[in-house]
Amino acid sequence: MAEAHQAVAFQFTITPEGIDLQLSYQALNQIYLSGVRSWKKRVSRIRNRVIKGVYPASPSSWLFVVIAILATMYMRSDPSMGLIAKIQQHLPLSAQGQTMLSALVFSTLLWFSLILALRFCLKLLLSYHQWIFEQHGRISNTTKVWVKRFNPRKPLLYSYQTSLPHLPVPAIKDTLSRYLESVRPLLTDPKFKRMTELANQFESNLGNRLQRYLKLKALWATNYVSDWWEEYIYLRSRSPIMVNSNYYGMDFLYVTPTPVQAARAGNTITALLLYRRKVNREELKPSRVPGTVIPLCAAQCERMFNTTRTPGTETDVLQHWQDSEFVAVYHKGRYFRLWVYRAGRLLSPREIEYQVQRILDDPSPPQPGEEKLGALTAGDRIPWSQMRKQYFSSGVNKRSLDAIERAAFFVTLDNEEQGMRGEDPAGNLDRYAKSLLHGKCYDRWFDKSFSIVIYKNGKSGLNAEHSWADAPTVAHLWEYTLATDAFQLGYTEDGHCKGEVDRSLPHPQRLLWDIPSEAQVHSSLAVAQALADDVDCHVFPFSEFGKGRIKKLRISPDAFIQIGLQLAYYRDRGGFCLTYEASMTRLFREGRTETVRSCSNESCAFVKALEGGEAEEQCRCLFKLASERHQNLYRMAMTGAGIDRHLFCLYVVSKYLGVESPFLKEVLSEPWRLSTSQTPVQQIELFDLKNHPDYISLGGGFGPVSNMYFPLAVIANIDGKNKLGSGFSTD
Length: 731
Hints:
Structural class: alpha+beta
CATH class of the largest domain: Alpha Beta
Number of domains: 4
Domain Choline/carnitine acyltransferase: 167-707
GO cellular component, one term: mitochondrial outer membrane
Radius of gyration: 29 Å
CATH topology of the largest domain: Chloramphenicol Acetyltransferase
Pathway: Lipid metabolism; fatty acid beta-oxidation
Strand content: 5-15%
Number of helices: 22
Helix content: 40-55%
CATH architecture of the largest domain: 2-Layer Sandwich
Enzyme class: transferase
Membrane topology: Multi-pass membrane protein
């Protein structure tokens, strides 16, 4: 009860002698300090809005313009060409006051005009994408001048947002031509002829009508794809998001910084909150295309923390809160609210470890229905929505659910040991990845923007919800967390977090539940368990060679892997299939992804030649052509000339108009038999791999999207040695 008394700022009672007022100065002081922190954040947000609002100019440039205008007026010159005099006529002030105020008004208008002109020029620069198609050593003069001129002044995280170009709508003729080319190696001559006829009919009839609506949306909306993609591909899906949508990230492969579970949790939580502080203050540098100064859209960072996906009958909703001073923790079937701030101060890593250890040492059992409650987020969405409305809309259940959903993020203190360890490192690595993908199907909160998993032996990992952002954004977060944990925060010799502990900290708050019926929990768990049991996961390290050696051969590592996957599938199945590879479109504002159709005429020609015993030189030539073709497909997808997002949006428009298109219906029903993804680690170069070559993460992975194959590959160059970490998942 001591903690409860400390939480009360004042008490008063009415007695026969009068009013007895008791003040808790400690509580009042904490309220005051929390308010100070809140106001500091507000002031910081206002400051950042001003700075990015006038970017690429600076607020101080306004004063320079004012001084310049006043100086020219002092020299009896009129830089406004009569505009200042017209402004003076409408000011009810003295002559001197009219002169000064009109000069300030004109200077401000001129300043805003210069900002708009600079922003327009910056948008033109960022709209130039020819550089991406040029080969090394063959850079055009235009690109050289462009790169030399693009030297922005210390941007904040969101400084480029208003200057990024909008995603263009490709010409419908170009999209259909690219589509037919992509399916040519997959169809027989009669089927290809039929598909060509369907495409021509679509173009000449319904296609142009749908295209007009899409162009109208592109003029009005920031991005003509992203809102529909988020809504219809993610939020409207009624199937489980566990495995089907959520993805995972892994810890260091060969190193565990500490075997102490609470200590690893302390540093990991601290690192994540430090990253959140950088996001809130916009202190992170905008992400860039690797090896260039070209900025990428940062919009996905906005909902990284304090965000949850809430279920609905027809569609889910992403809810985001401005701030949260606590995280939600799960351990042995119990849920806790762990406050990570006290009186406006972020707890030290040692203090967070102390609080986590209190949770680990708590002997209380789960309440009825509490242990497997998280299965609701792992099963189908409609039952979870109905359960939420029936049992979580009021009372103690609502308060506890709000604590989880409003938390900065979710933490699972897993009672298992994971990692590449013991006598069966390969098998244990498989189990480690599978655990991060779905766990026990009830010990993660899959609706949270991301959940951190800390295992009993100090290993860690991450499970992320997919609708709010794509993997590269979360990969940056996770890379920062691992690097900060291991190389900046560090541990003492006995494996504990550094820093002092205030032992008067109140205990983590146990969340209370009143679950009258567990039937739906068990039903959702059965659905999720069947899905998890149907997934086989194999992850393995590959150290024979990696991207360094591939690049020395002047071959794209991405193209190398994709062509290799085509060869492997052909050897296994005796044919080719529709292949999905994700490409980003974050060169454009609010861009997300585009599909690279990796199975091309050129890759198929190489595979057939190699399997048919053609001469080595002929195979080399065909491999080079296939590689160049794949790189070109990837570049076109990045620069807005992809196929699938355009066709998807045309299909959405057709549904809104209530018209049927046999062509679009058939295209969007084609199964992706092979779905691939490549996530490079060490993207922001926070790891010192030269001095610490073992601090390498194997990256992460997704669940399978069909009943066939879902390979993924992660490439890294470690300490001059070429290593390739590769995973292979099948359903």
